[in-house]
């Protein structure tokens, strides 16, 4: 626990330093803000790329080993069903909270924002037009395992790994044992690498925060104060519900889980990437006592199907844009929007700025000007900090809950 606390403190210090350095550059050297931001952001880029480097092999090896060791196909089906029920319930609750609170708080009616130039959102507008059932299928079913590895398509890797793991489980122990043992060794070696990479996290955090503060300064918070206040209040309500459900399932062990995942939560918050903490989260959940087979099965699925913070943001931001443009939506339209978001959001795992792409597509569908996305782009980084952190919490709770329901949660923490 000592090393974990040191990492947590190092990240906090890096976060404060990043805000201070970024603020200093913005105020004292505004002409240098853009090149400074571009260069220091590389620290964050290097950290995230180091993590992305090990995600595909880690997901593949741990999932194959987990399923092959289960050997009982009924158990695989049972664990998968429980996980999907959690994911669907959590997604609907998250979407509903966003919808309910944006209607109650009405930030779009109160916030006075200048109508922005849509050019800033041009890439997003282009990337949202092609969404279809065909795109969904392509994101789920891999054409090539190597292509899925090269592009870090977690959902496609999960599909292949499940089929390969089930095939190994049905081959019989005599044939499958050497392969399972090899993958088990590789998985543990990758988890060992996680420990080394995570010590680069403070530099990554410093780079990411300093870059965004140097470019935007602190004035941006004044302009978007109401939007940020209402969004983070809505996130707080979602956290409260998630933690209450977690307490009902895990009891006092919930607090132990939160201590375990505090570093991953902070890294996700600082780097705006829940993907960046995937390997560390695997490690900490296993140390918490979750069965490694359950962790390796549910966590990759959760990264595609259980993004609670992103879900809530989608309804919140879509209705906010409608409010800004004075478009009134009936209750029926809003519920339809909620269901559309529930379905469309499942097919874009691994797409950069996925939440914004879906918001643009949804706005187009419901007659809301899609260029309204330009209104929230300037502040999206700060909203992304909150939703990334919430995604990590949701997946940690889902994995722990299913482990508990399966009777696979150790009472005493393990060392991996």
Automatic annotation (TrEMBL):
Domain of life, per lineage: Bacteria
Cited Pfam families: SDF
Record carries keyword Membrane: yes
GO annotation, cellular component aspect: plasma membrane
GO MF annotation: an example: symporter activity
Residues spanning the membrane: 7-27, 47-71, 83-105, 154-172, 193-214, 226-250, 319-344, 356-379
InterPro entries assigned to the protein according to its UniProt record, in alphabetical order: Na-dicarboxylate_symporter, Na:dicarbo_symporter_sf
Subcellular location: Cell membrane
Lipid bilayer topology: Multi-pass membrane protein
Major localisation: membrane
Keyword annotations: Cell membrane, Membrane, Symport, Transmembrane, Transmembrane helix, Transport
Family annotation (PANTHER family): PROTON/GLUTAMATE-ASPARTATE SYMPORTER, PROTON_GLUTAMATE-ASPARTATE SYMPORTER
Name the UniProt record assigns to this protein: C4-dicarboxylate ABC transporter
Organism field: Chryseobacterium luteum
Taxonomic placement: Bacteria, Pseudomonadati, Bacteroidota, Flavobacteriia, Flavobacteriales
